[in-house]
Amino acid sequence: MSVIQTHPTAANVRLREAPQLALSTKRGFKSIVAGGLTGGINICIVFPTEFIKTQLQLDSGRNIMTAHHSVMVPYSSTLSWSHSVLQSKNLKLYNGSVDVVKKTIKEKGLKGMYRGVSVLLCGTVPTYSIRFGVFDFLKGHFCGRDGNLSPLARLGCGMGTGVAEAVLLVTWVETLKVRLISDQKKKVPQYRGLGHAASSIVRNEGPFGLYKGFTPTVLKQGSSQAIRFSVMESLRSWYTGGDNNKSVPKPFVAMFGAIAGGASVLGNTPVDVVKTRMQNGSYSSSLECARQVARNEGVRGFYKGCLPRMNRVCLEVGLAFVIYDTVMEVFKTVWPSK
Fold first, then answer.
1. Nearest-angstrom CA–CA distance, 99 and 88
2. Residuewise pLDDT in 10s, the chain (338 residues)
């Protein structure tokens, strides 16, 4: 009898383990394709806020010297510099997000708000493919038998995802985007388009010119994705109680994504400011850039463009997770797993 009882017990153990192993998140090529579709749809919606953020971050102002004649000195037909006081005044091009929109549309039309979108679109599709593909790959290797990640593993998988996308794509794409947007501010633009901008930078600065701001970009992307995926996975796990078979309603997915995006903005906007300034080609190193910002603009200088970036990122991340989940649900019907 004891032998007969032992065999059903072993069978029961195997039956219980099978569904757990089936919960692995290794979704392979589907994650890459779904990520690319997510990025393309997303960027067409949120690019204007990215444009506003970049313009505000690049607007460090111009120092203008003006001479003021002292009223304490009797009027003389011949103005003497000894009777005048030189004053320096820093003039900003924009007074805020709304001012950026007004001046850009007035000078360039509505198309001006999408200057540089081709660069970002070409970069965003593969970036999102890498982002979701790498995260699913890492999650599939580091999750527990129940398909869930530990808090430390969430941070690690997110960090690895951000570093991968920064090294492979984001750095040079962001460099081209910043250069094109900055070039628009000139009376006579230097670049005729994406290809011309890339070739000009490589010709004048070498291949590494496209990788200016590499260190802050890696730090920004790594910390950003670590925070976003960690917060998102934590909120999903909290809502479902750790049950991967339970779906999260789309409004909650959007809300969780917006919270994750907002948390990442608060955590790494200073790095984003340094990255943007570096990619504009105005500084020799990230450390010098940080020192100049701190000396000339103080702590507030490191949070320039924080509000429009917050608006953009919350919208982008919330939309991204909703679009991605929707695409993966469609794939279950049109592209079923074998």
1. 24
2. 445 455 555 445 444 444 443 344 456 789 999 999 999 888 888 888 878 888 888 887 766 666 665 555 555 555 454 555 666 666 778 888 899 999 999 998 988 888 878 867 887 899 999 999 999 999 999 998 888 999 999 999 999 999 999 999 888 888 888 888 888 878 888 898 888 999 999 999 998 899 888 888 899 899 999 999 999 999 999 999 989 889 999 999 999 999 999 999 988 888 888 888 887 777 888 889 899 999 998 988 888 888 888 888 898 899 999 999 999 999 988 988 76
Q: How far apart are CA 228 and CA 236, in angstroms?
A: 12
Alpha carbon of 161 to those of 57, 177, 208, 274, 276: distances in Å?
26, 22, 23, 21, 21
Cβ neighbours for 213, distance < 8 A, ≥ 6 positions apart: 171, 174, 175, 274, 275, 276, 278, 279, 286
